[in-house]
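Tokens as discussed.
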């Protein structure tokens, strides 16, 4: 039976009139892959609280404006040298920020705010690209 882990994070965007589509999405460079700000849900912590905490810890960005009605879950397996096979569940929320300054944690080597098409190309994993497609479609469908 694989060990279970749960994480939470944000598909974070800000309005940028000069960008195609009018918004840019924050991606973080983990050194070996590009992904979103996310991290482990701690004991007695809600998924949303974990996402807010992790965003601040990893980027210095204060609590964003969460977009109601969007929550996306991805699941995958990976191997850990310490724990063996792990089943990971990650909950993503959609949120907007006005922040342009990012103060990276030691976990990251870079970041970029990218328009949808460039973000799709930069993300390392197909599951992350799928979440971004759903988030972008959700934003387009809501006033």
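Sequence:
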């Amino acid at each position: 039976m694989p060990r279970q882990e749960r994480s939470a994070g944000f598909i974070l965007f800000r309005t940028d009139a000069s960008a195609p589509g009018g918004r840019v999405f924050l991606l973080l460079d983990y050194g070996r892959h590009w992904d979103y700000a996310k991290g482990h849900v701690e004991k007695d912590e809600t998924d949303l609280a974990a996402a807010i905490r992790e965003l601040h810890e990893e980027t210095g960005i204060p609590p964003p404006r969460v977009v109601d009605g969007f929550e996306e879950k991805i699941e995958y397996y990976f191997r850990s040298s310490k724990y063996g096979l792990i089943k990971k569940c990650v909950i993503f929320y959609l949120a907007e920020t006005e922040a342009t300054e990012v103060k990276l944690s030691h976990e990251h080597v870079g970041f970029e705010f990218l328009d949808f098409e460039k973000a799709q190309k930069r993300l390392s994993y197909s599951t992350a690209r799928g979440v971004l497609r759903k988030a972008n479609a959700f934003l387009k469908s809501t006033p």
